[in-house]
Amino acid sequence: MNRNAEQTVREYFHALATGGDVADYYAEDATFWYPGDLPMSGTWRGREAIVDGFLGAAFGLLDSEKETTIEVTNIIAAEPYVTVEWDSMATVRNGNAYHNQNIAIFHVQDGLITRAREYANTQHWEHVLRDPQAA
Description:
The protein is α+β, with helices and mostly antiparallel strands. The protein has three helices and six strands, in the order αββαββββα. It is 27% helix and 41% strand. A hairpin with a 5-residue loop joins strand 4 and strand 5. The longest helix has 14 residues, at 5-18.
C-alpha cells in the first residue's frame, strides 16, 4: 500500500460512512477492541472477525431502513498512529434514536490498520437498546 496512516484512516471512515468495502483497510491479523458489555464489546482478532463480527454486530443493532450517519469531527495523526473523533447517528431497531460521540486510536502499518481501540458511551447504547415501552 502506498498511503500513510492518516490517508488510510480517512479512506476507511469514508468507506464506513458510504457502505464501501471496509475490509480493504484492515491487515489480515488486525485487532479491534470495544468497551462495555454489548454484543460488539471485547477484542476482535482478524479482519473477518472485525468486519463480520464487530461491525456486523454494531450495524445489526441499527434499523437498516433508516439513515446512519458517521461524521468525523477531528483527526490527529502521528505516524503510525491516528486518533479520530466522530459522531454516530442512527435509529436502533426498536425505533429509539442513537447519537453517540466516539474516539478511537488506530495503528497503521504498510497502509493497513493493524490495531484499533475505540471508546464510546456504552451506557447510551444500553439505554437506546431498551424497549421503548419500558422507558
